Amino acid sequence: MYLILFTMVYCVVTQILNLKFTIALGIYLIGLSAIKGVLSKEVLDVFNFRKTSHLYEKFGFKDSLMELMSLILVFFNAYLLDYEPFTPFGFILMVFIILIVFRFLFWGITLTFKNLSIESSSDK
Fold it and tell me: Where do the TM regions start and end (predicted)?
C-alpha cells in the first residue's frame, strides 16, 4: 500500500515540475530498482530469474497487483507529461515494455521492503 502512496506522491511531483517522459519514468524505475538491488540478498532476487509460478507463490496476489498498479500509474503519468497519441504499434510496444519491466525488475519490490522492515525491527 505504501508503494501506491509513494507512486501517487511521485506522480504529483512530476506533474508540478513538468518533467519529460524519459526523465520522469527513468528516475522512478532506476531509483526503485537500485534500492531493490541494494536491499536484495541474491542476484536472482533482483532480476527475478526464477519461474513465474514460484514468484507468484512467493509474492502473492495482493502485493503483485499493487506493484503492477503502481507501475501502470507511473507509465500513465509519464505519458500524460509528454502527450503524444499512440499508434497501435506504439500502444502494443508500451504494454510489452510494462510487462517486461514488471516481470524481470519490478515484481517483488514490496517484499524486499517488507523484509528490510522486519530485519530492522528484529535488530532492536
Answer: 20-39, 60-80, 86-106
Least confident of 42-46, 104-108, 115-119: 115-119
**Does residue 1 carry a pLDDT above 80?**
no
* pLDDT over threshold 80, residue 89: yes
How far is Cα 7 from Cα 25, in angstroms, rounded to an integer? 11
Ramachandran category for residue 42: left, alpha or beta (phi over 0 → left; psi -120 to 50 → alpha):
beta
Q: Which three cell numbers stand for residue 87?
A: 499508434
Residues in the chain, how many? Answer: 124
Q: Give the whole-angstrom CA distance, residue 81 versus residue 72.
A: 14
Residue type, 102: F
